[in-house]
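BUG: 3D viewer hangs when loading the predicted structure for this chain

Environment: internal workstation, default settings.
Expected: structure renders.
Actual: progress bar stalls at 90%.

Input used:
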Amino acid sequence: MKSLFWLLVASCLVSTFSLRAQGVLFLTFDDKHWDKWIAAQPLLAKYDAHVSFFPYGYLDDAALKTLKTLQDAGHTIGIHTLHHKNAASFFKEYGAEAYWRDEVLPQKKRLEAVGIRADTFAYPCSDRNDETDRFLLAQGMTYLRSGKGGDLSVSFPVKELASKRVLTGFGVGTYYKTDIKKVCALIRRIAAEDRAVVIYSHDIAAEPSKIGMRLEWLEAILKTAKDCGVAMKGIK
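Structure tokens produced before the viewer hung:
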């Protein structure tokens, strides 16, 4: 009987572990598309997906209300600067302190004043270097997101997440020559190999801008991740 008992226990453990989510998908969206982001919330909720939004520009009360609603739904909100100034170029010309004062702090203060946690950062145009990374992390930023255009080779083992602070992703949009079948194939691969990947885009619509996410693409990504057991998380 004892042997049968432990056989059943082992069987249950195997079943439990086989159902564990493998792989992590970080979906991120940039710029000033808060109305389109909130419109896509029902689709994200349908697949239990949590994502990250990185707004840029002056955040008026309406924008802050929308961003707070997105945070309350389980998504994360980060910083993408006040004027979309490239970090490495700005640092070289005006210095790190000026970038923090003029580009980062205005957004950080507006977000935190309404209870939005704002300690992640997405580089405008992915313009970064070691100096910008060191400085922004020293100011308390927890993660920095960069990108490599349409390069789908940027996934990494989930076990490296604990030590990574700069997360490099790939873009989705017609500008990046997106092949949604290849994107979904990559998601299946990260599920099989327990890897993580970051995807960035901008607006979300049936007919988005060239750097935006088609609704049909977003649903294909979400469904593939859900079917494969991939965790869909915000960067935080």
